[in-house]
């Protein structure tokens, strides 16, 4: 329940539905979600860890995501995902990569159906597969807190041309499957640079709505 509440609040804070500096009162949120204060407390702890809530004299307030946050998030993600790709190329089997290909195939199916939500889910699964295939459990655990935020950013910023985005992910996977580590990391950097640009545009748009 705490995870579900955290997701709802995370979406609303990032989208600006909950304005910056809003007091995130446990009793008010418990009444809103019709739960005890325990799950709300767990949710708020997650948001504080993620930088979407801040403590001011024992009271938590919503904190907007700004362009500096985007830079920091993508810098950390590039470091984590570059390592994940390096380890995955070293450790993953052909069967593991076949499973990633199936994810890309599901992206293509979502594109045919013009299903942006299903595409965003597959997009997240694609990137998480590098961490899963790295063979390093702690690296996967390190990605998990960021995964929750990026899942929302994916939904907000994924291009409307999901057919082209699917082709981009297919090309990305094709490079990774060659086993060329440096080319794969370069492809990741380009991929994240473009994605970061989309997120910046979305956040600027939200700030003016």
From TrEMBL:
Gene Ontology MF terms in the entry: DNA binding; DNA-binding transcription factor activity
Transmembrane segments: none
Transcription regulation as UniProt keyword: yes
Domain HTH gntR-type: 1-70
Keyword DNA-binding: yes
Superkingdom as given in the UniProt entry: Bacteria
InterPro entries referenced in this protein's UniProt entry, alphabetically: GntR_C, TF_FadR/GntR_C, Tscrpt_reg_HTH_GntR, WH-like_DNA-bd_sf, WH_DNA-bd_sf
Keywords per UniProt: DNA-binding, Transcription, Transcription regulation
PROSITE patterns: HTH_GNTR
Pfam families in UniProt: FCD, GntR
This protein's name: GntR family transcriptional regulator
């Amino acid at each position: 329940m705490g995870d579900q509440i955290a997701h709802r609040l995370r979406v609303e804070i990032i989208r600006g539905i909950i304005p910056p500096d809003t007091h995130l009162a446990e009793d008010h949120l418990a009444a809103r979600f019709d739960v005890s204060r325990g799950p709300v407390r767990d949710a708020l702890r997650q948001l504080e860890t993620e930088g979407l809530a801040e403590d001011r004299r024992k009271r938590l307030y919503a904190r907007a995501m700004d362009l500096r946050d985007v830079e920091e998030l993508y810098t950390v993600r590039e470091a984590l995902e570059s390592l994940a790709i390096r380890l995955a190329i070293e450790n993953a089997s052909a069967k593991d990569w076949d499973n990633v290909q199936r994810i890309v195939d599901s992206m293509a199916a979502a594109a045919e159906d013009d299903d942006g939500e299903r595409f965003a889910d597959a997009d997240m699964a694609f990137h998480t597969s590098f961490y899963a295939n790295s063979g390093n459990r702690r690296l996967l655990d390190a990605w998990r807190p960021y995964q929750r935020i990026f899942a929302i950013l994916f939904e907000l910023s994924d291009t409307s041309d999901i057919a082209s985005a699917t082709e981009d992910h297919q090309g990305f996977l094709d490079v990774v499957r060659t086993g060329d580590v440096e080319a794969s990391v370069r492809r990741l950097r380009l991929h994240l640079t473009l994605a970061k640009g989309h997120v910046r545009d979305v956040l600027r748009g939200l700030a003016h709505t």
